Amino acid sequence: MPEGDAGEVFLDQLFRIFDKDGDGSIDFKEFMIATDMTSSGDPEEKLRWAFKMYDKDGSGEIDVDEMVEIFCLMYSIQGYTEEEATERALKIFETLDKNGDGSLAEEEFIKGCLGDNELLELLNAGPGGGE
Questions:
Q1: Beta strands in 5-106 (DSSP E)
Q2: From CA 11, how far away is CA 94, in angstroms rounded?
Q3: What is the pLDDT of residues 37-73, one digit of tens each?
Q4: Alpha-carbon gap, residue 13 to 121, rounded angstroms
Q5: Which of 6, 35, 62, 95 has its CA 20 to 30 A from that of 13?
């Protein structure tokens, strides 16, 4: 888990995703859904969950800054540098942004990941995966 501000931001992101009704607490149903979502489910379900984590502002699209920020948080947990995380995030974003508009809609993100086995493994494995 990242420490300091990075850890707090990461936990806020997770909390926002799991607090489905936005009431500021996670009830038992939300907890069970979150537990199931992160431990099982098909690749598309996991990618939908990942999309929500990357879409920090809830706009329905991921921009490159959001992807870089989340990658930096996730990679810092594993002891990677911000530069390594940024490089990986930019490479993945460029691969997924097929129309070159600078943002990823949910379906664009999911289809792009599902259509690229190497990318899917990389995202599922997290830092150090696919190397």
A1: 61-63, 103-105
A2: 27
A3: 666 667 888 888 888 888 888 899 999 999 898 888 8
A4: 23
A5: 95
Crossing angle (nearest 10°) for helices 28-39 and 43-54: 120
Helices 82-96 and 64-77 pack at an angle, to 10 degrees, of: 140
Give 119's contacts (C-beta < 8 A, 6+ positions apart): 92, 95, 96, 112, 113
- Put simply, whether the predicted model's pTM sits higher than 0.70 gets the answer no
Tokens 């999911």 correspond to what residue?
Answer: 110
Sequence-separated (6 or more) residues with CB below 8 Å from residue 109: 47, 51, 54, 62, 96
Query: CB–CB of 99/108 below 8 Å?
Result: yes
Cα 121 → chain centroid: 14
Q: Which residues contact residue 90 at a Cβ distance below 8 angstroms, ignoring those fewer than 6 apart?
A: 64, 68
